[in-house]
Amino acid sequence: MDFKSRQQILLEAINAASNIIVFTGAGISTESGVPDYRSPGGLWHKFEPIMYEDFVSSEETRREDWRRRFILNDEFKKAEPNNGHLAIVELQKQNRLLRVITQNVDGLHQRSGLSDDNVIELHGNCTYATCLTCAKPYSFEKCHEKIETTDQSPLCDECGGLLKAAVINFGQAMPLDAMMQAEDDARACDLFIVLGSSLQVYPAAALPQIAKRNGAKLFIINRDPTPLDHLADFVLNAELGRSLHPLII
């Protein structure tokens, strides 16, 4: 079956669905130029991951973590939402989108036009910071200013707690409320579309299986094969923006 025929199958499934979950991984962001964490040359091949307990206990580690976050945030700022992001926004406009569940931390879904209510960020967001004690949000610009002024990692103005990028570090607990909402949505959807995820990181990779067990169709669009391809109703190994482009024309 040629690409256009497979693309038509995807569009027909979308048009027949009313409660669509779109589950996104690094693949949708790399098409916007955001560096991939795991692939060769990615961030985790350049830097040893920073554990949460080390961040909390060591000023030196906190300063190194912030140095990396500023570098990564500069990369995020250069990136623009691509056709894959814009196609999902079109689903929102059509009232077919139940939710986007994302493993990404770059904020590109919100920048593309999705409402905050329609996005669940399983691994947090690396474009702003929060206080680890009182959860007050801070811009990265404010955190950078604090570091420049005090020559120390930034602290909260309200309670004096540690400020940290609002992303989940290794060893840090996944956000329970976000995961529970994602599981509920997976049970409620009638079409679960995976876009650009290797489906190797758990518990997030369990969500397509939950959707499938509860009667949803499972479509996987990814550059490479995934461990869950055998469960899918449809698999397309192709670029996401190209695959979804008919939704935005």
Automatic annotation (TrEMBL):
Keywords: Metal-binding, NAD, Transferase, Zinc. Zn(2+) binds at residues 131, 134, 156, 159. Gene3D superfamilies: 2.20.28.200, TPP-binding domain. PANTHER family: NAD-DEPENDENT PROTEIN DEACYLASE, NAD-DEPENDENT PROTEIN DEACYLASE SIRTUIN-5, MITOCHONDRIAL-RELATED. The keyword Methyltransferase does not apply. It holds the Pfam family SIR2. It comes from the Bacteria. Its EC number is 2.3.1.286. It comes from Cohaesibacter gelatinilyticus. One of its GO terms (molecular function) is histone deacetylase activity, NAD-dependent. The active site is at residue 123. This is protein acetyllysine N-acetyltransferase. Residues 1-249 form the Deacetylase sirtuin-type domain. SUPFAM superfamilies: DHS-like NAD/FAD-binding domain.
